[in-house]
């Protein structure tokens, strides 16, 4: 266990659990102090990993950790955060969507360093870049081993990345729609799902080639006038692109 740079977690839900699992399954995990909020998840993590401890209260988490990760639901922010006493020497990393640094400081009433972050579930596999604002060594130490850190210079740009995360379930829903169509044509549901999963899992590997732009990758997966190009241009036409952008604009307005 690395006792330097200990991390306290207030709110042990899915994302926080993924962070703890990702770090503890890798090399040199920090000491983790987990809040009793999300008790079942916290207890399960403590049983699995020797570097994890469950504390008796949120305040104990804050007191024992060097870096405090906030991962509570938006609607619970007032009730959970307002009562915490965070000393100025602490670093607070917030994974609360839609809660800016000014509001965090109002809720916590602290002079501690505040950093926002957008961790995604793939941090569990140490395979996801985490957006942070502003850049800070404590945030880099927490997230670099989980797939890397992308530091954003201002909160307006940070909100754009936050809006992009709202598209993940849409992508998965798209794959579900493909499967539904195949089933409607008489293909067994299990076979259709297996094939769609395999096809897009392997297509996703191409995203690791950052020497090619996303437009280039799309072009490399189609031939002029072929089936892929015909479906793309018919379905993802200008009207549908604008509809998608309008929805993202609405998300962005709420996040800023």
UniProtKB/TrEMBL annotation:
Sequence positions that bind NADPH: 58
Gene3D superfamilies membership: NAD(P)-binding Rossmann-like Domain
All copies of domain Pyrroline-5-carboxylate reductase catalytic N-terminal, residue ranges: 7-98
KW NADP (keyword) present: yes
An example molecular function term from Gene Ontology annotations: pyrroline-5-carboxylate reductase activity
Alphabetized Pfam families for the sequence: F420_oxidored (PF03807)
GO biological-process terms attached to the record: L-proline biosynthetic process
Key words of the record: NADP
InterPro entries: NAD(P)-bd_dom_sf (IPR036291), P5C_Rdtase_cat_N (IPR028939), Pyrroline-COOH_reductase (IPR000304)
Family, as annotated: Belongs to the pyrroline-5-carboxylate reductase family.
Record-given protein name: Pyrroline-5-carboxylate reductase
Organism: Glycomyces albidus
């Amino acid at each position: 266990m690395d006792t330097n740079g200990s991390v306290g977690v207030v709110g042990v839900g899915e994302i926080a659990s993924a962070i703890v699992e990702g770090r503890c399954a890798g090399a040199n995990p920090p000491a983790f102090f987990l809040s009793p909020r999300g008790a079942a998840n916290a207890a399960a993590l403590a049983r699995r990993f020797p570097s994890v401890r469950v504390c008796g209260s949120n305040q104990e988490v804050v007191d024992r950790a060097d870096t405090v990760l906030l991962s509570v639901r938006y609607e619970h922010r007032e009730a959970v955060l307002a009562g915490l006493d965070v000393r100025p020497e602490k670093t607070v990393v917030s994974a609360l969507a839609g809660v800016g640094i000014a509001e965090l400081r109002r809720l916590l009433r602290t002079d501690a360093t505040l950093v926002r972050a957008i961790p995604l579930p793939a941090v569990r596999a140490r395979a996801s870049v985490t957006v942070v604002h502003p850049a800070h060594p404590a945030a880099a130490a927490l997230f670099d081993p989980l797939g890397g850190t992308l530091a954003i210079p201002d909160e307006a740009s940070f909100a754009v990345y936050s809006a992009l995360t709202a598209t993940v379930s849409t992508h998965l829903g798209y794959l579900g729609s493909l499967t539904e169509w195949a089933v409607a044509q008489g293909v067994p549901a299990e076979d259709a799902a297996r094939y769609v999963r395999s096809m897009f899992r392997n297509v996703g590997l191409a995203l690791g080639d950052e020497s090619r732009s996303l437009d280039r990758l799309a072009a490399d997966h189609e031939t002029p006038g072929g089936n892929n190009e015909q479906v793309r241009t018919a379905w993802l036409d200008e009207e549908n692109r604008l509809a998608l952008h309008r929805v993202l604009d609405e998300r962005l307005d709420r996040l800023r």
